[in-house]
Specification:
The complex is a heterodimer. By secondary structure, chain A is mainly beta. Chain A contains no helices and eleven strands. The chains are: A mainly beta, B mainly beta. At the A-B interface, strand 5, strand 9 and strand 10 of A face strand 5 and strand 9 of B.
Chain lengths: ~120, ~110
């Protein structure tokens, strides 16, 4: 298994509070990603990083910010949590795969966030 | 933006049956990946297909890439309860290093 951990694994928080989720990898992969997964919507990309301090927005980035100060850590912050951000959040890492010009993505175990 | 449509959305079968799930794109893609996600866990990469017409086998799973490179299928032979999960197809956005996922097929194999 790829060395990816997420913390916390479960969190319940109140509307309006800040929340930070952490993703840690031991694979030295260049690319890191944050997704959310909701029924009926599948996996949706929030933000991703293509190197230390290099990040970009995904399709559902509003209300989220990220930071990557080290290769191994990628943080996702909800500045002021809302009920619509209740979801399961997955971190992923990727690097070149075995086939030419293809990448392989590996996922963490997920964080279940509930905003009340 | 390339869209991926997966069908069926839900599939419930008995142990020992065969099944096929499909992934279709609105445009040609260079490579496609299939992932399986078990309940409570993150998706796990099963296979990458890159060549039109390509067929890959992984034990009882057979993956096919359409000749026109706009569709792919996953066939499972003699399904087992351990095959239960969400099957996702995904493709890369070229130089953007972003993966676009279909919404998946939720498979339940009953003993």
């Amino acid at each position: 298994d790829a060395g990816i951990t997420q913390s916390p694994r479960h969190k319940v928080t109140e509307t309006g509070t800040p929340v930070t989720l952490r993703c840690h990898q031991t694979e030295n992969h260049r690319y890191m990603y944050w997704y959310r997964q909701d029924p009926g919507h599948g996996l949706r990309l929030i933000h991703y990083s293509y190197g230390v301090k290099d990040t970009d927005k995904g399709e559902v980035s509003d209300g989220y910010s990220v930071s990557r100060s080290k290769t191994e850590d990628f943080l996702l912050t909800l500045e002021s949590a809302t009920s619509s951000q209740t979801s399961v959040y997955f971190c992923a890492i990727s690097d070149l795969g075995n086939l030419p010009s293809t990448y392989e993505q590996y996922f963490g175990p997920g964080t279940r966030l509930t905003v009340t | 933006t390339q869209l991926l449509e997966q069908s069926p959305q839900f599939l419930s079968i008995q142990e020992g049956e065969n099944l096929t799930v499909y992934c279709n794109s609105s445009s040609v893609f260079s490579s496609l990946q299939w992932y399986r996600q078990e309940p409570g866990e993150g998706p796990v990469l099963l296979v990458t297909v890159v060549t039109g017409g390509e067929v890959k086998k992984l034990k009882r799973l057979t993956f096919q890439f359409g000749d026109a490179r706009k569709d792919s299928s996953l066939h499972i032979t003699a399904a087992q309860p351990g095959d239960t999960g969400l099957y996702l197809c995904a493709l890369w956005g070229g130089s953007n290093y972003k993966l676009t996922f279909g919404k998946g097929t939720l498979l339940t194999v009953n003993p």
